[in-house]
């Protein structure tokens, strides 16, 4: 298990110890390390590029840009307030190198990277909202989150929709069973019980599993 975890851990190729190239874990990088990038590698930290050949990175995770961004390591930007997407001499943490190769020096790591700052802002915003609310609002919010988790209403949009659909089917099945039992004035014999169960089960579409499998495979 430890060997598998080591293989899955993000790594970086750095130049240390008088020019010796080493492969280290990304979480051991420090400001000032020189990192080499190649196509297919994930940028381990925010880097100020100083060498590069046809270097392009996918920054969709950070900026939402659908196309790879061409980097220009040799350009100098004088405006410190440039938007993230316009800083073409910087390679950002968690972006993917789609083309070329390059070399840069680490300027930010961990939560000090641009991606880490976004995570910090989101966490602080949620924490401030919880702190400013009273105890009853916090208890209600906690209860609602726990309820959503139990009902499966958390996760991807597809998972949420499927969970809502399952809850609707369950409610309809219970409703049909109650109608069947009420028709017999709730004198539930074995035959009435079997008939109610059959009606409740019949609400589930027969081709539901096939449709979901085809949809997810597409």
Q: How would you characterize this protein structure?
A:
By secondary structure, this protein is of the alpha+beta class. 44% of the residues lie in helices and 22% in strands. It has 7 helices and 7 strands. Strands 1, 2, 3, 4, 5, 6 and 7 form a 7-stranded antiparallel β-sheet that branches. A hairpin with a 3-residue loop joins strand 1 and strand 2 (20-25). Helix 5 runs antiparallel to helix 6. The longest helix has 27 residues, at 157-183. The chain is elongated. It starts with a helix and ends with a helix.
Task: Give a brief outline of the structure.
With 218 residues, the protein is an alpha+beta fold. The protein has helices at 2-8, 60-63, 114-132, 135-151, 157-183, 190-202, 208-217, and strands at 11-16, 20-25, 34-38, 46-58, 69-70, 90-91, 96-108. The two termini are 33 Å apart.
Main structural class: alpha+beta
Q: How much of the polypeptide forms β-strand, as a percent range?
A: 15-25%
Q: Name the poorly predicted regions.
A: 3-8
The counted number of beta strands is 7
Distance between the termini: 33 Å
Main beta sheet: strand number and arrangement? 7 strands, antiparallel
Order of secondary-structure elements: HEEEEHEEEHHHHH
Mean pLDDT: 82
> What is the percent of helical residues?
40-55%
Sum up the overall morphology in one term. Answer: elongated
Counted by DSSP, the helix tally is 7
Radius of gyration: 27 Å
